[in-house]
Amino acid sequence: DVYKRQTLLHALLDRLCRTVRASCRHHDLLGRHRTTLFWLLLPDTGEAGALIVRERLLRALGREVLAETGAIQARIRACYLHPGENAVHFEQRLLAAGLKLMEPAP
Fold it and tell me: What is the pLDDT along the chain (106 residues), one digit of tens a residue?
């Protein structure tokens, strides 16, 4: 039923957004790229900090359980702007990394 799927998707999105908001800083930015692909921008965060956020989010999302689906499962990958890399190349790398995350797990 379309209405039921839309309601479930809305509930999942709401829970995801609340969990990210509770796990991140006020100025971190969450954006949606596709139905199930999101970007979380962490300004002024180094590699170690990004990996800490990644682990914190994975744990927090794993504790979020919906009766219809069970625990929220997420795949998170950290990507960094390389020194001297232009924005277009970085965006291409992000898109490729996002598509790889959406592939079925081995």
Answer: 899 989 999 999 999 999 999 999 999 999 998 888 899 999 999 889 999 999 999 999 999 998 888 888 888 988 888 889 999 999 899 889 888 888 887 7
For 39, phi and psi rounded to 5 degrees? -115, 135
**How many helices (H) and strands (E) would you count in the chain?**
3, 4
Taking the C-alpha atoms of residue 100 and residue 94, their distance in angstroms, rounded to an integer, is 10
Q: What is the pTM of this model?
A: 0.81
